[in-house]
Amino acid sequence: MKCLYYPGCSQKASSISYEKSFLAISKALGVEIVELDDWNCCGTTVAISVNEILSLTLASRNLAIAEPLGLPLVAPCPSCYVTLNKINKLFKEKSPLVEKINEALGKGGLHYNGTVEVLNVLDFLVNKVGVEKISQKVTRPLNGVKIAPY
Q: Which domains are seen in the chain, by residue range?
C-alpha cells in the first residue's frame, strides 16, 4: 500500500514527534509513505483573514500537485485536514470560487479537478490499512493504558 503524506507546517515543527510516530507506524505496517513534493502551507493560518482566495489557493496548490499521482493524501494536522477537505467540498459543489482558484493556480502552471481523497491518520489506519492488519502487528498491547489523542 502506498499513500501521499502532507505534513503541513506543524508536522515539521511543533508536532515533529507526531510525524515521527506516524512514519514509524506506517513503516511497521508496510505502508509506503511518499511525502508530497514541494508542498506549502495549507493557508489555514492568518492567510484566510487577509485574503480568502490566497488562502484557498494555497491549499488547492497542494491538492493540484497531489492529483496526478492518484494516491490518497494523509494530512495528520487537524487544521490542514479540514482545510484540504474544504477545498474538495468547494469543487464538489462547483462553487464560483473554483474558477478563481484555478485561475490563480494556472499562473503557476497548475489546475485542480477536486479528485484527491484527503484522509486523517485515524481514517487512513482504520479504513485503508485495516484494524485486522494493525492488530496482527501489535507487539505490546496497551490494555489499561489511558491515552489522549492529538
A: 2-137 (1.20.1050.140)
